[in-house]
Amino acid sequence: MNVTDALKRVLVGRKLASAQLGETLLPKRIALPVFASDALSSVAYAPDEIILTLSLAGVAGFVFSWQIAIVVAVVMAVVVLSYRQTVHAYPSGGGDFEVATVNLGPNAGLTVASALLVDYILTVAVSVSSGVQNAKALFPFMVGHEGIIAAVIILILMGLNLRGARESGTVFAIPTYGFMFAVLGMIVVGMVRIFVVGEPLAAPTAGFDVVGDTYYSQLTGFALIALLARAFSSGSAALTGVEAISNGVPAFKEPKSRNAATTLALLGVVAISMLTGIIALANLTGAKMVDEHAGVYFTQGGVRVTDHQETIMAQLAATVFDGFPLGFIFVIAMTMIILFLAANTAFNGFPVLSSILARHGFLPKALSTRGDRLAYSNGIILLALAAVGLVLAFNASVTALIQLYVVGVFVSFTVSQLGMLRHWTRHLATEVDPAKRRHMKRSRVINAIGLTFTGTVLIIVLASKFIYGAYLAILAMAVLFVVMKLISRHYQQVERETALSPSDVRLLPSRVHAVVLVTDLDKPAMRAVTFARASRANSLEAVTVAAEDDHTKDIRQQWEALDPGIPLKIIASPYREVVGPFVRYIKGISSGNPRDVVMVYVPELVVGHWWERLLHNQTSLLIKARLAFVRGVITAAVPYQLASSRYAIDRVVRRERAAWRHPGTGTVHSGSNQGE
Amino acid sequence: MNVTDALKRVLVGRKLASAQLGETLLPKRIALPVFASDALSSVAYAPDEIILTLSLAGVAGFVFSWQIAIVVAVVMAVVVLSYRQTVHAYPSGGGDFEVATVNLGPNAGLTVASALLVDYILTVAVSVSSGVQNAKALFPFMVGHEGIIAAVIILILMGLNLRGARESGTVFAIPTYGFMFAVLGMIVVGMVRIFVVGEPLAAPTAGFDVVGDTYYSQLTGFALIALLARAFSSGSAALTGVEAISNGVPAFKEPKSRNAATTLALLGVVAISMLTGIIALANLTGAKMVDEHAGVYFTQGGVRVTDHQETIMAQLAATVFDGFPLGFIFVIAMTMIILFLAANTAFNGFPVLSSILARHGFLPKALSTRGDRLAYSNGIILLALAAVGLVLAFNASVTALIQLYVVGVFVSFTVSQLGMLRHWTRHLATEVDPAKRRHMKRSRVINAIGLTFTGTVLIIVLASKFIYGAYLAILAMAVLFVVMKLISRHYQQVERETALSPSDVRLLPSRVHAVVLVTDLDKPAMRAVTFARASRANSLEAVTVAAEDDHTKDIRQQWEALDPGIPLKIIASPYREVVGPFVRYIKGISSGNPRDVVMVYVPELVVGHWWERLLHNQTSLLIKARLAFVRGVITAAVPYQLASSRYAIDRVVRRERAAWRHPGTGTVHSGSNQGE
């Protein structure tokens, strides 16, 4: 089974199952918000980071902001054009991972996969941190508690996703269009007030001066270039999420590729308008931010300003809507919501990618879908814990996290563009139709330009941010890459080791010896005895270990009185332990009869709460663990359901009913025949 | 089985097993160091805490130190006398827990048990913290990293105890006698130099003045009393560990009780000499400490002293052996070692107590010895983690930890003395021999005095330390008490629920349906098939879930080619999951035949490393977990041992060989017949 098939099966298969439940394929107007929330939300923090980085050159630095915005916009246009080629060439929705694997081999695919996994984690951390940053404009009490608030929000998102409450298109559509309306509306109103009405709009920070460790303030030669490169790298965060549509082609209405490409173009236009509009408005109103961690701060009339910094979005909203608080609240609320929504898309993307990787043997099988919804749950929990770790470690500072963020995005952009180049070259080698060849050559040129741009940006990002945190992202990717390689090698080795040979089929054990472990003479033990009796083994005995004399005597007397129909063997235990003597006894039977099977029946209590599990079945667990290493021995756990097990059954039923109501989470979809 | 029997079995049983391995009962000269390291080590920090607390009254406060030392010495004498009665009355070695349970009922026993468990944790935290404090005199680089160093030392102790390297008497004897020799020697040399030679010995801090928040400095009325009470409470830490001998009576040579009582008296004399000697020497040389956390600090010539504070022990050693560095090093090294040794005794005591409590159903059975050495391991790990948490939370500050420490000790002292009072009263009611009655009455008077003293100290400790941290200890005890109560109630309820009725024996299932789960057609699956065939069930089939079409087709074709002798059933799975459809299929068989047994054979890979376990058997685990809730279904795990399982088998063999070399750890003692 090759990668493309697998991906098709994962994505188309999921879609098919959903289709039966009445869901339809997405029209463009719904697909845009579904796939664009991540890409659009980044304009909430990219301008801040451009301006904040430039503050290192003092007030004079800010004049470069619009130039940087234009360069970012140009790169974004190129990337959007490049991905339109991908959408046409790979309508299966595999995205960068598929492009890299098919064209450049598994190592390239794995490189992209590592970059994407790291990126999903950073998307959650950065988006939620930025959401909290913006939320402070509405809820000032959050100031000083950013890390813990961001962590709580991530855990809430995790909880929602674990419960399987998956958003429909509408849930995405309202806040995404709301955000577009709010930001573009704010830009238009601002421009009208400045240029048409002629009001001199001034942001709250317009009159502030910038002082401190502005070590770039000479603004000459290499220092200037390095600073501009850093500002540009931070601004490139605006490009994150652009590739999302290329993963979602199968979800579009026919003609899928064409609709996806159009939506991608639309996304590009909207994102570029928002980014340049915000930067322009910031320049016009004098809105600015400073990098406090780098020792730069605001002064007003020579006195240091100690208030916490508002985001550019909050400053602009306050300035443009200065007489209209509802407008301000609307902009901030929409910004907050789209940022949390962007984080949420990673909660969908990460488990899907890790399940694809698990299916190919690069991650533990526990993350693949074969194990039902639990697989997705594992992915969701992993993602949430990693993101919580990041926001706590970096105290939800967008400025700190963004240093790690952009590397991964551009690694996968670059590798993917290289893959596309190979794709067209490969197809050109066999294609004869001149019209198609022309078209392919054109596409190849576009992807070559894309590769040049993304590759250059990657080098700039690496050079300008390496020591500021990018090395951490690179390190994480390298570790992931190596771990996935090792996992894959392990699975292949196990597959070789367990490969069937014809002789395995013919070797039948000659006899079955059944042994029932009795530690207490109660209902669970007696159920194990009756079940063992029903199995008609060649030999059958109950065994108890004499760990406590009185207790053993009790059991023997009761056994004789009850007469359960099989002999009770008592094993001596000089050190009053149960597991060791029992395991040795079973090993003795097994090694005396190497061609036979020893079937060990172990009674187990089935309980309904996690804490009850700490209180029971420890001996049984130990015995099962030890006997697993003995060839020819099978342990059969005979469950005895305590009344409290009802709670666990009810939980499963409730969960499955919820899955039925919220399809598409990979859960069991039948509410019937549950419990017992 | 009553408490006394259980305790006897635990302690005498352990001893018996050890005796077979050539160990002998302890003579007094070995018993003293074995049981006294905890009690003696506390003189390393008790004087510091007395002096440090008095610093709150400024320089004038220190004059009270010798008076407090005398009161502590008197209380210690009374407690030692009281415990001599316990040793005679309860030679089984159950200690305070037994005395309280037998005489005052299970709730009193549980109160003592909670107090002791909390105390063991604090013994580790306080002893190691004090060890680090003293170690700084030899290794100054430790300053500023106390918390993490203490945590590492605790983890090292945990590791040693997990490996089962249990100390023999000699390991205790050398450092304990060394410590006694070092401290008493230092006191004698110091006194000789001062009074015989007439040298004016002055500690490094002798010339320092004490300033700061000395809010008690009025030294009048209530404030003075409160301060003295606090200093006394901290000094009472010297009494911790005195009760240890009463737990160890069965380990003494005959006449056990008499020898134990003599050893206890010896311990009292040594501890009192050391405590009063150190305080006297500190007064004579002007050695002092200040409570920096309370805002009190040293000045010299009006300038604040910023060096880190040396312990009283380090100051005295440096002063007395000022021309003889080897003497200084010896004192500090012995102090350090005995403190770590004292912590180590808790690593023996905590698991034993928790296993006794687990045996009585107050703690999870996983902590009782029936599960072999793993039970002790659980106790050791629990203790270490709790102590690490404490030293990190309090940054290994002895002064902060000591606020929590003494409460638990005096709770168990007081309850135990009350129990002894009851004990004598009960025996006096039936005793007729006038000589014995006289003896009993005398004992009762001693215990009544003991109760008065320990009760008074408890009240003083509670009143003077409650807000400084004692409330935390009380809270921890209360939580432990309630949790143990709840666990006990749960076990009783389960016992009622699973109690056998005669009808359970007669109900035989009529038929057995065997089902083998096949997810891949490999050696493990085929082993499960052949084992299932050997079991001669009434019906037998292999089942595979069609989660992936190609894969399922492969399996079907291979199955037909191999012809393993049983039919292969293919279950549809519209959502490409395995667990749900399989479990529903089994439920279907089971509910269609409620009087039958369904035996589900699940192939499992047995691996040798923990990380391999993350990579395998997830489907099997999920299926077993889900099927446990279905009545009439047994899941039999058919293990397939991968080559790497060898590592795990080797580990077990090595561990068991180590246990053979270091007997007494509760492990399996047979090195033969291991592995397979």
Describe this protein's structure.
The structure is a homodimer of 676-residue chains. By secondary structure, chain A is α/β, with parallel strands linked by helices. Chain A folds into two domains: 465 residues, Amino acid/polyamine transporter I (Up-down Bundle), CATH 1.20.1740.10; 140 residues, Rossmann fold, CATH 3.40.50. Chain A is built from 24 helices and eight strands. In chain A, the strands form two sheets. Chain A has a five-stranded parallel β-sheet, sandwiched between helices. In chain A, strands 1-2-3 form a three-stranded antiparallel β-sheet, with no helix packed on it. In chain A, helix 4 crosses helix 9, helix 5 crosses helix 15 and helix 13 packs across helix 14. The first copy, chain A, is elongated, with a radius of gyration of 32 Å. Chain A starts with a helix and ends in a 15-residue tail after the last helix. The N terminus and C terminus of chain A are likely disordered. Chains A and B meet through helix 1, helix 17, helix 19, helix 20 and helix 21 of A and helix 1, helix 17, helix 19, helix 20 and helix 21 of B. Strand 8 of chain A pairs antiparallel with strand 8 of chain B. Chains A, B: One of its GO terms (cellular component) is membrane. Chains A, B: Its main location: membrane.
What Rg of chain A is obtained from the alpha carbons, in whole angstroms? 32 Å
CATH topology of the largest domain in chain A: Amino acid/polyamine transporter I
CATH C-level name of the largest domain in chain A: Mainly Alpha
Strand content of chain A: 5-15%
Largest inter-chain contact set? A-B, 111 and 112 residues
Ranges of chain A where pLDDT stays below 50 over 5 or more residues in a row are 1-23, 660-676
Spatial strand sequence of the major β-sheet of chain A = 6-5-4-7-8
Number of strands of chain A: 8
State mean pLDDT of chain A (0 to 100 scale): 84
Oligomeric composition of the shown chains: homodimer
Number of domains of chain A: 2
Number of helices of chain A: 24
Q: In CATH terms, what is the architecture of the largest domain in chain A?
A: Up-down Bundle
Summarize the main sheet of chain A.
5 strands, parallel
CA(first)-CA(last) distance of chain A? 38 Å
Could you name the CATH homologous superfamily of the largest domain in chain A?
Amino acid/polyamine transporter I
